[in-house]
Specification:
seven-stranded mixed β-sheet; alpha+beta; elongated; two-stranded antiparallel sheet
Amino acid sequence: MAVTSTRARLEQSPVLDPPREVREIAHALEQAGFETWCVGGAVRDALLGLPHLDWDLATSATPPQVKRTFRRTIPVGEQFGTIGVLDRHGRLHEVTTFRRDVQTDGRHAVVEFGASLDEDLARRDFTINAIAYSPSTERLHDPFKGRDDLSHGVVRAVGQARERMVEDRLRALRALRFAGRFGFRIEPATWAAIVDSAPFLSRLSRERVKQELEKSMEQVAVPSRTTTLWHGAGALRALIPALEAQPAWVLYAADFVAHPEATRSAGRKRRRTLLRLATLFVGLSHDVVVRTLRDLRFSNRDVDWLAALAVHATALHASVRAAIIDPTPPGDAVLRRWAAEAGRTRVPDALRVVLATLSAELAHGPRDGEEDPWGDGGAAAMRGAAPSRAASLYRRTLRVAYRDPVEVADLAVDGEDLMREGGVSRGPALGTALRRLRDVVVEDPTRNDRATLLALARAWSAGADAGGF
């Protein structure tokens, strides 16, 4: 986001437009005698001209008073002052009582009600998130000059930065995400507090770390703006050491995967987020990827998918790079091998990850003193040609993968045929024989006929009987 355009927009009189349902909730609370303001990310994003669906409210009403004011409520976090109010469409809006912290442990706080709006805003993390808006008077309340920081593109802690980080260690990661998402710089004292906080980030729950990593991949248009900050601040070393040891260019690979927020499809958005995540793990072993993802509390389904994708992309990386460098297009047999490595349904995503990592490698690697994998002077020569060659390879591979035999299931024989007529016994030898036959037809699809494959199986079986399988 360009800071100059942001500044111009903020210099104009703000026109914030909370949804009608949010205004109705605020009006009901004010009619009942309780001061009520819109607060948080929705106010910030609205000032930046960005859409935001979740408008939160802060009020002088206590949780019991909020519940008495509305017919349908949910105790989202009543002990912390938050009640969920359901609007006439059944959508939930969080209403939180003005509060002050009386005790913190680095993540959770013991809060006290009866605070003023200013006291409530003072306990928030960054000035850009400590702006309140009154729907009834259309007035902004900005005691910490958050609007100025929005205008100048600055992430700045409210009050003493080190105190804010000690109160809640998650704030360090949130600062890095906001800086990346909005293209803002982090104010020096806040950055110093983040760096000082890095050794203590391991106290965060792994679920929270996972959420921040996913949000960075989903919300930040250019994820390297955040991942490189994680690296520079020491957060990767403290939280995900396997990624801290990766080559520098790996942290830029997710930039070359389409932005998840560019699509309205929830399924496609999730897929793009996972593709971006997968790029971070290219080059690591399957065991390391699985161990890291499980430690971060990813679901078993996501662990399996991400680990397989990263490993397939790692296996294909050098071969795809060589195909892009070579001005002579590779033959179909090469593309079938790629499809066989990843599987027909996974090869599109595996190639997306490979091409993203190659783009990052070309743009940001190697480090000083490292050998250029693109060859002597090859990087400069390839920067213009690589995108078109990569796109052509991607399209050709998909056509070949869905046209030719590339998987065991595509063979003209199955396991029962091999046991009944090919002389292959049940057990590990059967799986080995099927994979060898798959490799044969990947090299030459014309050999994918029953008689040829059974003859090969019998020959291999005879060799095995002689001790050669």
